[in-house]
Amino acid sequence: MSQHGTVKESPTAALADPRAADNVEYDSSLASLRENSADLETTTEYGSPSYTSEHRSRNADRTKNALDHEFGAADHDHVRTAVEAAGDREMVCLDRKLGRHPDNTYVCRYYVPKAYSRIALAWANLFEPAPADADPDFVTVQVPDTDEVAVRVLPEEGFTAVLGTDYTGEAKKSFLRLFMLDAKRQGGLGLHAGTKRVRLESEGDDGSDLETVGQVFLGLSGTGKSTLTAHGLGLEDPEDATMLQDDVCALRPDGTVAGSEGDGLFIKTIGLDPDEQPDLYEAATRESAVLDNVDVADDGTVDFDSDAHTANARAVVRREHLPSADEEIDLPSVDQVFFITRNPAMPPLAKLSPEEAAAAFMLGESVQTSAGDPDSAGEAIRVVGTNPFIVGSEGEEGNRFRDLVADLDVEAYLLNTGTVGDRDVGVDDTVTLLREVSRGRIDWADDPTTGLTVPDSVPELDVSRFDVGDALDDADERIADLRAEREAYLAEFDDLDEAIRDAVY
User: Fold this and answer.
1) Helix, strand, or coil here: 226?
2) Residue 473 above 60 pLDDT?
């Protein structure tokens, strides 16, 4: 367990020990938390609880941290409101363990009013129980029923106040945000990414000595990160593809990738398909799942295709019920990194140099999803590192990413899971590309239209139909305009290395 001492001088010093506080129900069982929320539950046909919240996405525009923003009296008042609520109101409090890596393991303490035990139930299913009597590294107090929405983060104290929102994702990300910051302070980099271990036979191998390929997938919520991380790639025994982590991890200087969530995943459920996402569907239809803003009829019938409540419908699912998930959450070494985009001017796959990879990291190009801003879903968006939870300099993160990729000799790729022009890149197409790049069986060529290194031939896939110059109207002009936009965007980061700016594609 990490011993950072982050909360000794924090606002939590004003809180009584939750184990002894009269107003706190400490370390409640999952069954007890569900019982507390019985009046709010719709029980699904699978026996799982389903809840509907007032807030159905994160409040990025209402979030401030004390390192990147100037905190005034009003901000400190928000923190004080959270602390006073934790000390006075009827609360539930849970301690959970985030991560398992010796240098990236933290005890997280979460307070929420007992009336909102459903949030604690979902959150508690994501992380493993903390050691008994452990002191917290990070503390979050969520008070959903305040008049004003405000998320205030004190990184140096490891404290987050979440006010005015009952969205489960705010609880989860309050701890992961600080996990990623500490990884950066240790010389690594926190990533909004999933991790995967692929084991393959080499030519002539009898299956007794498999080659392991460690993969990391960076992408905004809703771009296919969970689907691809959990996908078996069509491999057959003794080969396999196994998910280690779904959402947030830490790339360390020694090449290991530390996981964060040990017990569950917070997955999007809109369009969840048993044929295309069999593992995720299996886990989401178990009694252990906790559904969040999913359309569930009074008789318990679940409609994963409906956005009646929100397109950002979610479920917390247990790793133990996800066939593709391994018992381990840490990746021993990283070999390949993929940036998931849905830019129709990009090829389905491109190989990147370390500088180009850092440019891709900084650009973070995709489309807006309902998880970030439901009102802008479908619009083009750029988010550095596809990570809206960065604390500190974004340019320094780009420089750090380039250095880590180069020092660790990691292969980097751009992966378009949307369309090339109007030509759809299907899940089967992407899976074939991933399987063959894992095997090292792709022949590469320079693309005259984009200037990128793209597949020239791929076993079992006709990549010629995804030629950007052929699929995109006015391709040369559009690529030139896109490159100019990218150059102007990267120029905004004063501390970004010039070699990364010059590598823009």
Assistant:
1) helix
2) yes
Question: How far is residue 349's CA from residue 338's CA, in Å, rounded to a whole number?
Answer: 9
Lookup: tokens for 361: 């990291």
d(C-alpha 331, C-alpha 188), whole Å: 14
In sign, the C-alpha dihedral spanning 389, 57, 420, 484 is negative
Considering the chain, what is the average pLDDT of its residues?
A: 94
CA angle 193, 195, 200 (to 5 degrees): 150
Q: Among all chains, which residue has been given the structure tokens 């019938």?
A: 301
SS3 state at 189: strand
Neighbours of 21 (CB within 10 A): 16
The alpha helices in 238-311, defined as continuous H runs, are 278-284
The maximal CA–CA distance of the chain, rounded, in angstroms, is: 70
Distance CA 394, CA 475 (A): 31
Strand ranges inside 355-477, DSSP E: 365-367, 380-382, 411-416, 419-420, 423-424, 443-446, 453-457
pTM of the model: 0.93
Q: In terms of DSSP H, where are the helices of 264-306? A: 278-284
Contact 331, 216 (CB under 8 A): yes
Domains within the chain, CATH numbers bracketed: 11-185 (3.40.449.10), 188-252+329-468+494-505 (3.90.228.20)
Neighbours of 13 (CB within 10 A): 10
Residue 75 CB neighbour total at 10 angstroms: 19
Cα–Cα dist 309/272, whole Å: 16
pLDDT digits (tens, 9 = 90+) for 330-387: 999 999 999 999 999 999 999 999 999 999 999 999 766 555 555 655 577 899 999 9
SS3 431: helix
Question: Distance between CA atoms of 44 and 418, rounded to whole angstroms?
Answer: 32
